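Support request from a user on the community tier.

User writes: "When I paste my structure tokens into the form, the page sometimes reloads and wipes my input. The last time it worked, I copied everything first. Here is what I submitted, just in case something in the input itself triggers the reload:"
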């Protein structure tokens, strides 16, 4: 016969011990899973910061260029059919542009989006002279190829960049509401690229896709496939 003292000193039964071990194992598994997720994603802020730096570096480079290749040194508006300001320095090829082929609109000064005659996508970017030359630029350190690695403005490979990707898109944009449509005056709508059938010399009467604003979008993809996007609007000056 056990005394009261002996009963209170009894250990756990086998069933209680098994239940305790089971609960402990489940809890430990959950904690380890959480810990693993923290470790695997703990570098995200650093990756995002580096991605932002890479995006800002390229955006600064782009915005240091002229609005258009025909923009006079020191600035000056070009003819851009929708609301363009007349600048006599750019009439009739005075600054190297083609002679006005639509006198009613005077819209031939601004160029289509993209590389211009004599420019090459394979040459160093230091030879690109306006913001829309960068349209379509795609530098990719994630595809295993070295041919399209990230480069600086002089064409040198950025060997310490890491597994990032940088892309650029440039387009003519118009302010919503500025052409009579509804919408906030602070919102921009893509107007076009000024190529082919959209050229204002063919469609000026119904509104040209060439406006006084170009939108530059730089997108950087991090090694964890997160996109960091910077958007700037460059005016015709």
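"...and here is what came back when it finally went through:"
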């Amino acid at each position: 016969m056990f005394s009261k003292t002996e009963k209170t000193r009894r250990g756990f039964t086998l069933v209680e011990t098994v239940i305790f071990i089971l609960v402990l194992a489940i809890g430990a598994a959950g904690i380890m899973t959480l810990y693993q997720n923290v470790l695997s994603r703990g570098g995200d802020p650093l990756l995002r910061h580096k991605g932002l730096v890479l995006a800002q570096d390229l955006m600064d480079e782009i915005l240091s260029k002229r609005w258009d290749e025909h923009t006079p040194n020191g600035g000056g508006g070009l003819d851009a059919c929708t609301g363009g300001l007349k600048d006599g320095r750019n009439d009739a090829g005075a600054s190297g542009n083609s002679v006005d082929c639509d006198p009613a609109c005077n819209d031939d000064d601004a160029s289509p989006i993209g590389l211009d005659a004599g420019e090459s996508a394979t040459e160093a970017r230091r030879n690109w002279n306006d913001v829309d030359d960068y349209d379509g630029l795609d530098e990719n350190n994630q595809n295993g190829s070295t041919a399209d690695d990230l480069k600086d403005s002089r064409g040198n490979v950025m060997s310490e960049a890491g597994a990032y990707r940088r892309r650029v898109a440039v387009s003519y944009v118009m302010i919503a509401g500025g052409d009579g449509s509804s919408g906030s005056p602070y919102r921009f709508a893509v107007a076009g690229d000024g190529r082919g059938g959209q050229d204002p010399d063919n469609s000026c009467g119904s509104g040209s896709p060439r406006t006084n604003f170009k939108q530059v979008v730089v997108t950087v993809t991090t090694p964890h496939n997160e996109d960091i996007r910077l958007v700037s609007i460059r005016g015709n000056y």
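Agent notes: The reload is a front-end session timeout and is unrelated to the input. The chain has a mean pLDDT of 73. The CA atoms of residues 112 and 194 lie 5 Å apart. Escalated to web team.
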